[in-house]
């Protein structure tokens, strides 16, 4: 089954009672049993819900995985994956990382005795310098947030397997349409479903996808025991959003390319981060492991003053200044004060997240309107 067909049909079938073609919203907390222990696969909605099951099966199919789990947020999904660790374990992760991931790593899990190494993943061989008998997981983000760095998933997975280390990949920026980490050797794929998968800025949700049944059972135990699960209404909305994922991603990529090319030639811009440029770091890897280059772009202004950056960020008429990304509408974000505000200034600036950088999530509006908006805001 091809991607577009899976997006519309995977995990879903007409309701056997009514014939409804859309998965019903099973707005129930519990389920009757014929006798104690004799149920139809559903006992209590913290653990399982039919609407959520359809979503989980659909997302798993899009990632070419066997098992999916949906969570109340991307951070709930991330936290559940990290529950596989124990005090004394070590994790190797990137130095250009989403601020929420950095925060949960350093503020929540480091105090429990888990050590994180934040390294440059541009050359995967660097990982070997940090591997030891305590290494339990490698956590990769690719493309990274916000400088769109590309990590060679296949090369990292080979190193992980050689050393019996789990590889988890945050695939949020690419979406399953552009990249499938399980096919490249990852053990766990994480998504903020809030972003491209749902795609309409009306849902907060996360997901994990795996192929190994034992790993799935471990994750499901934490998922059920700790209860970071989404309600059926949000699952229904995410399922509805997925049905147009392939169509939306094509538009994001087309608009993203034209916006990136326009910005690169603009006299007020010092640097444009976009994986589609031949001189972007690891562009050749992006061409190999991604199907296109996406709609995420970051730019650095020549004027280094934060006042200039704030003025421009507040001058858009079509783009909206807001957190998040991946929705049908175009968004502008200032990472230093918004998504990456929890990262110390000296840490984020080392990897290029400077005060005069803004991140664009290019939506699917008419490209002429987007380019005109950029022109007037940068004037």
Tell me about this structure.
- The chain is an alpha/beta fold and 379 residues long.
- It has two domains: 3-242, Aspartate Aminotransferase, domain 2 (3-Layer(aba) Sandwich); 245-378, Aspartate Aminotransferase, domain 1, CATH 3.90.1150.10.
- Helix content is 35%, strand content 15%.
- The protein has 13 helices and twelve strands.
- The protein has helices at residues 3-9, 50-62, 74-82, 99-109, 153-162, 175-178, 213-226, 232-242, 245-264, 283-289, 306-313, 345-350, 367-378, and strands at residues 67-71, 90-94, 115-119, 135-141, 166-170, 188-192, 206-210, 269-273, 296-301, 320-321, 331-333, 357-361.
- The strands form two sheets. Strands 1-7-6-5-4-2-3 form a seven-stranded mixed sheet, with helices on both faces. It has a five-stranded mixed sheet with strand order 8-9-12-11-10, covered by helices on one side.
- The radius of gyration is 21 Å and the shape is globular.
- The N and C termini lie far apart (48 Å).
- Its cofactor is pyridoxal 5'-phosphate.
- Belongs to the trans-sulfuration enzymes family.
């Amino acid at each position: 089954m091809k991607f577009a067909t899976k997006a519309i049909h995977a995990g879903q079938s007409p309701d056997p009672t009514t014939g409804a073609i859309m998965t019903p919203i099973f707005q129930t907390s519990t389920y009757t049993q014929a006798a104690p222990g004799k149920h139809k696969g559903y006992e209590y909605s913290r653990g399982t819900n039919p609407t959520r099951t359809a979503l989980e099966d659909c997302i798993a199919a899009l990632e070419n995985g066997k098992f999916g789990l949906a969570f109340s947020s991307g951070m709930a999904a991330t936290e559940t994956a990290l529950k596989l660790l124990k005090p004394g374990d070590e994790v190797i992760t990137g130095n250009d990382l989403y601020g929420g991931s950095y925060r949960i790593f350093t503020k929540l899990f480091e105090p429990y005795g888990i050590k994180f190494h934040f390294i440059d993943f541009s050359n995967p061989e660097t990982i070997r310098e940090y591997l030891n008998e305590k290494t339990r997981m490698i956590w990769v983000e690719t493309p990274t947030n916000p400088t769109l760095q590309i990590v060679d998933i296949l090369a990292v997975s080979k190193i992980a397997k050689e050393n019996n280390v789990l590889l988890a990949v945050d695939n949020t920026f690419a979406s399953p349409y552009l990249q499938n980490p399980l096919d490249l050797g990852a053990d766990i794929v994480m998504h903020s479903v809030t972003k491209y998968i749902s795609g309409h800025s009306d849902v907060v949700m996360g997901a994990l996808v795996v192929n190994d049944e034992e790993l799935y059972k471990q994750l499901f135990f934490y998922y059920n025991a700790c209860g970071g699960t989404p309600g059926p209404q949000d699952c229904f909305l995410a399922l509805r959003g997925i049905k147009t994922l392939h169509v939306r991603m094509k538009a994001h990529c087309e608009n993203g390319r034209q916006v990136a090319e326009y910005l690169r030639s603009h006299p007020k811009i010092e640097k444009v981060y976009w994986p589609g440029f031949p001189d972007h770091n690891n562009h050749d890897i992006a061409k190999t492991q991604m199907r296109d280059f996406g709609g995420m772009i970051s730019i650095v202004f020549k004027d280094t003053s934060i006042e200039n950056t704030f003025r421009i960020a507040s001058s858009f008429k079509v783009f909206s200044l807001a957190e998040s990304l991946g929705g049908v509408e175009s968004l502008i974000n200032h990472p230093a004060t918004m998504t990456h505000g929890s990262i110390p200034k000296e840490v984020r600036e080392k990897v290029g997240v400077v005060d005069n950088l803004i991140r664009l999530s290019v939506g699917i509006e008419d490209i002429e309107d987007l380019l005109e908006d950029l022109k007037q805001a940068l004037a």
